[in-house]
Amino acid sequence: MTITETHKNNKLTIALSGRLDVLASPTLQDILTPAFETEPHIELDFTDLAYVSSAGLRVLLVSQKAAKTKDVLFTISNVSEEVMEILDMTGFSDILTIV
Question: To 5 degrees, how large is the angle CA 34–CA 39–CA 43?
Fold first, then answer.
């Protein structure tokens, strides 16, 4: 998986490309954990994300909880039909802010 970070207008956008799986999840978590301490808005851009595993879902859940605790706006954008199906089946589409 490739991760690209962009800062603009008080928002950190993290673009993910490839698969958010057991191999990539720790890297994303290592980026997100400190970001919740300093960023007012964090957006995950799923434009080029092909798949999310249970390990990836765990990172999303932990991130959503951290966002609420730290009063950070945490959004997910550009979700493909395939990834949205995973989020819908697992109920994550109800707890995440998807734009």
Answer: 100
